[in-house]
């Protein structure tokens, strides 16, 4: 009888350990998803600021862009930390980093072009997303 209780206790502890491990993994996944959402929001805000500036030429419209630029690096670093133990996520993260970098370059380029008085060139649309305007102009 006693051995049955001990065996039952060991199975229960083992099951609880596995359950808590799964709960921790779910929590980590939610952390990654929340940070990815924050990256998406920051990029959208950066684009909103850039577009407002391109349309009006008013520097005050760049506030969302400036705020987003100041947070994106930290968000990408946070994603790097959250996915460090997962090789498959690391590969996806590298692709995301490249896309975010290309988008940031594109936004900065169009803002710089308008500031430098190249209004027409600043408003040339990108031909491809992956090269971020490199096919139509030089970063």
Number of extended strands = 0
Arithmetic mean of pLDDT? 82
What gross morphology would you assign?
rod-shaped
pLDDT < 50 stretches: 127-132, 134-139
- Please describe the biggest sheet, giving its number of strands, its sense, and whether it closes into a barrel: none
Fraction of helical residues:
over 70%
Strand content: under 5%
Distance between the termini: 76 Å
Structural class: mainly alpha
Helical run tally: 4
Summarize this structure briefly.
The protein is mostly helical and 139 residues long.
Description:
The protein has 139 residues and is mostly helical. The protein has one domain. It contains four helices and no strands. The chain has helices at 2-56, 63-82, 87-115, 119-122. Helix 1 (2-56) packs antiparallel against helix 2 and helix 2 runs antiparallel to helix 3 (87-115). The radius of gyration is 23 Å and the shape is rod-shaped. The model is unreliable at 127-132 and 134-139 (pLDDT under 50).
Secondary structure elements and pairings:
Blueprint: H1 2-56, H2 63-82, H3 87-115, H4 119-122
Helix pairs in contact: 1-2, 1-3, 2-3
Features:
139 residues; mainly alpha; disordered C terminus
